[in-house]
Automatic annotation (TrEMBL):
InterPro entries documented for this protein: aa-tRNA-synth_II, aa-tRNA-synth_II/BPL/LPL, HisRS-like_core, HisRS/HisZ, HisZ, HisZ-C
Lineage: Bacteria, Bacillati, Bacillota, Bacilli, Bacillales
Job of this protein: Required for the first step of histidine biosynthesis. May allow the feedback regulation of ATP phosphoribosyltransferase activity by histidine.
Keyword Cytoplasm on entry: yes
Domain of life assignment: Bacteria
GO molecular-function terms, A-Z: glycosyltransferase activity
Entries under CDD domains matching the protein: HisRS-like_core (cd00773)
Name of the molecule in the record: ATP phosphoribosyltransferase regulatory subunit
Family: Belongs to the class-II aminoacyl-tRNA synthetase family. HisZ subfamily.
Note: This function is generally fulfilled by the C-terminal part of HisG, which is missing in some bacteria such as this one.
A Pfam family of this chain: tRNA-synt_His
Annotated ranges, domain Aminoacyl-transfer RNA synthetases class-II family profile: 23-324
Amino acid sequence: MSRLFMFEKPLGMRDTLPNLYDMKHSIRTVMATEMKQWGFQFIETPTLEYYETVGSASAILDQQLFKLLDHEGHTLVLRPDMTAPIARIAASKLLKDNMPIRLAYSANVFRAQQREGGRPAEFEQIGVECIGDDTISADGESVALITSVIQAAGLENFQLSVGHIGFVRAFFRQILGTEERVEALTRYLYEKNYVGYRMHVGGLALSSIDKQRLLHFLKLRGGEEVISEAYSLIENDQGKEALSELQLLWEIITDYGQEKSVKFDLTLVSHMSYYTGILYEVYAGNVGFPIGSGGRYDLLLEKFGKPSGATGFAIRLDRLLESLGMNEPIEQVICIVFSSERRKEAYRLAQEQRQIGKKVVLQDINGVKDIDACSNQYNDITFLVGKAKEAMK
């Protein structure tokens, strides 16, 4: 084995050590329990999917897909997200009774990084999809649920920003005229390059009034009053339907009692190109990227031959842990150090402790090289070593 690669990992890949693994498991369990209480059922999908189906349907850029060939020459991908695989399952097996289905998942996804820069190429998402429901009530439920799930995980200080990609496109289209010009300006929003946005607007061949409308658009952030401001910027019916949906969404969120965590940001767009309506991102302290995101994607299931409304969200577990500070206390583990003549006694004691919910490590005295190191690792040590106990001290 080459010494160069003995301890190296592929770009963007991470090891999960015991303490972090336990924390992830604990947080994941709490979040999954909350999702189940809202009536969502968990499913699993294959790690490998066909490129021509899930790979092409996904909103992840082609250069970020991990591709490989099977023995028959078919191109496969490591799943880059969970929404497309779940859409495949829903269209092929589950959407048969014309009733919405509520599905949940917790799984790793894979996105290649050209330059790591601290960004993982494999990370875990936990989320839900509500498929077969095109009402704003379903969007409101998703917003309320992601808020409730994050609170259940123990995070209180976070902000959920809500926008509507339909409004952005309708507003830009009535001023700019062509899809090409709409896409060019939208790209600055996706990159959150507001300086570039302003410079781009300044260079457009538009009236001063239209330029001012585009610049004022950047200020559409805040509470319910933002919707009224947005109405004042549009000149015809284009965009009014989207604003009506946001108004209804706000009323639904208020009914859920989650309005304190939600703000509007009508400049919000997403790298997930399949979003068609309401979308949102969740931000928290200690993290420079969204810890979760979601939205409506009414056209995705058409790619699998089953047109249907759908909405959902995904939470990045690694970013959530980072925002929590990852400072949970390490669970107490009892270590029983035993010698051969007291082995049965040690086994019996360990079994008794485990039956009452304690975590117990059994350690043969002959396997301990340094008792001080053992004491540093376990904060509760029981010695069953007979006469050797005094020597250990």
